[in-house]
TrEMBL record:
Subcellular location per the Swiss-Prot or TrEMBL entry: Cell membrane
CC annotations in GO: plasma membrane
UniProt lineage: Bacteria, Pseudomonadati, Pseudomonadota, Alphaproteobacteria, Rhodobacterales
NCBIfam families xref list: flippase-like domain
Protein name: Flippase-like domain-containing protein
Protein's organism: Palleronia pontilimi
Amino acid sequence: MMITRPHAPGPGTDTRLRDRMILGGCLVLLVVGLIGLASATGWDEVRAQIARLGLGQVLVLLALSLVNYLFRGLRWHLFARRLGLDTALVQNLRHFLGGFAMSVTPGRVGELVRMRWIRRETGWPFERTAPLVLIDRASDLAAMGLILALALALSTTGIMGAVPVAGLALLASFVVTRPSLLAWMSYGAYRATGRFGRLFVRVRRAALSLAQFSHPATMLFAATLGVVGWLAEGVAFFALLQWMGAEIGLWTAIAIFIFATLAGGLTGAPGGVGGAEAAMIALLAANHVPLEVSVPATAIIRVTTLWFAILIGLAVFPHAEAQSRKGSHALEHG
């Protein structure tokens, strides 16, 4: 009688389980932290602050967030066309917005989903679309770094650590948008380690293909779209604080929002969950905003930015997936 052994789970199963546990842990810590802070200031005060917002004010916050998503979606379309993709505006917006469904997944899975949809609909492999992801990330860093630098210059109060963060964001965007420099760094990393040769070759190829985006008019238009988009969410944060009775200046509020968003990203947590909220509340406290205002304000602005984006992504995702399957079928039988 032959005895068969059960198949051991592969490494991919362990990785997925670990990623889910990390995401779940981040969300639990976020909820527990917000509940703890709200409890420390009293639920009555928190509920009273939230109740001060009317439906019209909530719609204004959502509209400003939508400005950010649409402007960045237009930038994604601009980069896709510069890369040589023969994709329409509606198609590119579908890819960009649908990827938001994966915003809080580990490892920026949303980017891979977008590339998968492009591959299905156009036949382009991941290696050819990788520059699109790199330039989009770099443009976000550049826009946020510029806004943070401007906000710090115009704000009446400083933010400890904001200048280095703004500098790092601008430096990272500079490196990514310099094809020859990025390719040289990739080659240097390979020479130093002597390992992962294929990976470094792919990175070098992707880096050299970034030259397609280096046209001054393209970069200027892309920077404008990114700055306007992220400024809209910063203004939303300022308006929210004003409605809740906080005495804080426009540029200080924008600086806090942008810095907290960047700081959350630096933690490596999906969507910056936990880190962005902690930074936002701490910076508001340093600017004499009481916890009974800062805690609900932080919760509301994250719901109307990050979680609103996820909701849009979840709404677009099934349509984007269905359209990509149709595109893949058309390519196979075209």
